[in-house]
Design a protein that fits this description.
Strand 12 and strand 13 form a beta hairpin. Strands 3, 4, 5, 6, 7 and 8 form a six-stranded antiparallel β-sheet that branches. A three-stranded antiparallel β-sheet has the order 9-10-11. The chain has a two-stranded antiparallel ribbon with strand order 1-2. Helix 1 packs across helix 2, helix 1 runs antiparallel to helix 5 and helix 3 runs antiparallel to helix 5. It has six helices and 13 strands. The protein is an alpha+beta fold and 313 residues long. The two termini are 28 Å apart.
Length: 313
Amino acid sequence: MEELILERQVLQREYECVLKHDLRKGLENLKELLDDASSSLNFNFFSPERGFACKPEKFLLTSPCANQQVKCMVTVVGDLIYEADLALKLTKQQMVPYQTRIYPEYPWKLQQIQDAKNQLSMALSVIENLEGSYNFTSGVEALDILDTIANHLQLGQECLSIPKRKTLEEIVKNPAVKSFSPNLPQDTAVSFYVQDCKLILAVYHLYTNQMNRVDISARFQVECTIPWLNEMLLLFTSASQMCQQLRDKISLLMGCLDYEQISTFDLPVSRVGISDQSSLLIDLTPECKDIDKRWISQSQDGTATLANNMMVN
C-alpha cells in the first residue's frame, strides 16, 4: 500500500513538472519553428526601393507524359504567379500555337499558399497568447491547447497537399483567368494549383455536348517542383510531430495517474504482501510500459527515496 502511494506521488510530481516546465519549453521550441516558417512565408511585402521581400523564381512547367500541347514558363513570387508565358496547341487542326501572357500588373494569386499561411498564423497566435506568466491548471487544458495548435497545423498542411476540387463552372468563371492577355479562347479553361511541392497548370479543352451543356473534351497538365514548398511541408510535419510528442507525454502521465488511483483505493490490499503489490502494480498499468523501471530504496532514516527517476521520452 505504501509503495503504491509513493509511486503515485512520484508520478504526480513528474506530471506537475511536465505541465510547469517541459510543456512551456516545448511550446517555446514550437514557436521558434513556426516563426521560421512564418518568416519564409512573409513574401508579399513590396517596396519601390527594395522590391519584393523574396526573390522572384522562374520555372518551366513540363508534362509528365511528355505531351507538347501545353508549354508554360512562370515567374513565382511567394503566393503569386507574377508572370507567365503560355502556348496552347490543343487540336491537330491548330497549326500555330495560341500564345498568351500573365503580366506583373495582374498576377495570378495561389490562394492555397495564403490559406496555409493563415493557418500557420492562427497556430502561432495560440502560443503567443500563453506567453508570460501563464500557468496551465490541468492536463486537460494543456491537451485542449495542443489539439487546437495541431488542428491549425493539419489544416495548413492540407491546404498545400490536398487542393480543393472545383466544378467546371468554378474553373471557367474564376476571376483569375482575366490575368491572361490576350484572353483565353472561349473553348479553353485553365487552373493553376498547388499539390504538395508541385505547381500544376491544368488546361481544359471545352465543347458543347448534346444536352447543350459545356463539357470537357480533353485535359492537359504541366507541372514543376518548387523547392521551398517542400521545405514548408517539412516544417508543418516537424511542428505537428513536436505537438504530438508533448501531447503523448501528458496523456501518458494522465493515464497512469488515473489507473493508479483506482488500484490504490479499490484493490483488496490486505490479501497480498508488499512484494505481491509491486508485481500487481506493473500488471495493472500497461500504459506505463514505456516508462523506465523505478526502484524505491529505503534511506537510513526510514524515509522512502526515489533511486532512479522516471523517464518519459
